[in-house]
Amino acid sequence: MVFNALKILQSSSSSSSLSVSPAELASYGNRVLLINEKLISTLVKPTNTSDNVSFALAAVEVEIFMVGPNVTLDKIPRLDTTNSSVDIDLIGIAKNNNETRSAAVTFMSYSTMENLLKPDFFNTSNDTVKTMMSTVISATLPKTTNTKLTKPVNFTLKHIREFDPNGSLSCVYWNISEWIVDGCSVLEINSSYTVCSCVHLSTFALIMQTSRPSESDSQLDLLYLVCVIVGLVFFSLALLTFALCQRRPGVNNVARINLCISLLLAHLLFLLTQQFLSLIRPHQVLCDVISGVLHFLFLSGFVWMFIEAVLLFICVKNLSQISSKKREVLSTGFLCVIGYTVALVVVAVSVGLVPDGYGSEHCWIKRDKGYIWSFLGPVCVIITLNMILFICIVIILNSTLKNLNAEVSQMKQTKTMTFKTLSQFVVLGCSWILGFFTNGRKELEIIFLILNSQQGTFIFLIYCVLNNEVRQKYRKFFRYLCCELKLNTINCVLKKR
User: Fold this and answer.
1) Which pLDDT band holds residue 439 (cuts at 50, 70, 90)?
2) CA-CA distance, 42 to 151, in Å (whole number)?
3) Any idea what DSSP says for residue 214?
4) For residue 194, what is the enclosing H or E element?
């Protein structure tokens, strides 16, 4: 009952932390730690061999191990909780207690203690953002006369937040009013956990330091917001154009419509997720689902890009529109199955292999264990295939146009090559190639952001603005609109008279 009450007290203290001074938070945290240690020490009982006690509540997980003078173990097993574990030479400590030849260790993992012992209590000379990367743990030797350690104690702390490779991790312990590193060092780091070694027992945690977001980052966020909104507007215009201005919808039109739908939904969902990230992030299941849907939508967009490249290759090879017989082979249903099933299979396999690979800090794919390659792998394959198709298209165009009249060939070659180059390298994923080479460089990130967010704009320009038939329909539409406005104005004037 006391431990469950502590969870409520810690949560309420977190919600009102703006009105509580740091000194009061530290004082309250010290009292919570002291009460917990006194309560748990009552569970330690004398034993001749060995004994253990463990329990888990909402606020804390506890592991207790006791050894006596007649212990038969060579070493005690690792004490494990959900997010942490400890290796300690308890038998060696017991042997140093000459009178009782016994010892006991208590290991506690607190789920909400960071609300009191905040990572900002880690005072460093540099101005950085400090993040608690593990649960707060505590290890003590209750009812043990000689508490001197025979060997350093190793703690394995699982990361409870996404690991930032550019951050600096520190193993720290709580010293009355602050987190300090004295006596603790990092033995091993990977994307999932960190191993700390300490020469004393106390209350420990893992804190990451990262650079504070600069003003340019906020400007970059604003630029991203504006660019994505512009891209979404042109995606919508392109879809409207494909739906209303195409006289004979064919296979190519189906591919372009689905390409626009996939990318429109992907960019829109990602934009909304980032804008409401603070509300979505606490709900891990929702964040995981959004990550999976984004993975599916972006991958299906790339698959439709590849289908568009294949159809373009067929068009150039035949130097005419796909015939009705071809349409039967490449029917709308067949293309839809390919366009969405391939992406769905990749996502399903990814979930089956690594179920916890989704749900990063930004509700995207985690970078742990190379899971990001479940997205980058198919992207690399599709971009490579598109490049091969583009080279084949250039070779076919070059050899075919040479056989035509020289003047006509030169004109057609200029127009066709310009159109195909733009459609292949921009619409079919050229902008994503740049994403592999940014490496944190702001200039390349800005260029990648603009190109990637403006795919809807490029599609509208290439397939709508540069299409003579579409331009004529737009002219007729605007003329009709102007005439209607004029007629309405004249009617209003006549009614007034």
Assistant:
1) low
2) 26
3) P
4) strand 193-198
**408 membership: H or E segment, kind and range:** helix 406-422
14 φ, ψ to 5°?
A: -65, -45
Q: Which two tokens stand for residue 364?
A: 């995207």
In sequence order, what are the beta bridge partners of 209?
Answer: 130, 168
Q: Which of 265, 387, 251 is nearest to 308 (CA)?
A: 251
- Hey, which residues does 274 pair with through a beta bridge? none
Q: What b/e sequence results for 378-397 when a residue is b if at least 16 CB atoms lie within 10 Å of its CB, and e otherwise?
A: bbeebbeebbebbeebeeeb
What 8-state DSSP symbol labels residue 323?
Answer: P
Asked whether the beta carbons of 150 and 93 are under 8 A apart, the reply is: yes
Report how far residue 81's alpha carbon sits from residue 60's, in angstroms, rounded to the nearest whole number: 10
**92-107 pLDDT tens trace:** 999 888 888 899 999 9
**CA atoms 354, 205, 279, 285: torsion sign:** positive
Taking the C-alpha atoms of residue 10 and residue 27, their distance in angstroms, rounded to an integer, is 13
Tell me the two tokens of residue 165: 């490779």
Candidates 243, 242, 235; CA nearest to 260 is 235
Q: What H or E segment, with its residue span, contains residue 46?
A: none
More reliable by pLDDT, 222 or 328 = 222
Token reading at 278: 């603070």
Helix 22-41 and helix 2-15, axial crossing angle in degrees, nearest 10: 170
Question: Could you tell me if 413 and 397 are in contact, meaning their C-beta atoms sit under 8 angstroms apart?
Answer: yes
AA letter at 35: I
User: For position 321, what pLDDT does the model report?
Assistant: 42
Block residue for tokens 């893992």: 206
Please give the Cα distance from 420 to 170 (Å, whole number): 53
**Distance between first and last Cα of the chain:** 85
CA 47 – CA 22 distance, rounded (Å): 42
Provide the H-helix boundaries in 423-496: 430-435, 442-453, 455-460, 468-496
For the chain, the maximum distance between any two Cα atoms, rounded to a whole number of angstroms, is: 116
Instruction: Provide the whole-model pTM.
Output: 0.60
Dihedral of the CA atoms 158, 161, 165, 166 (nearest 10)? -130
Radius of gyration of the chain (CA): 32
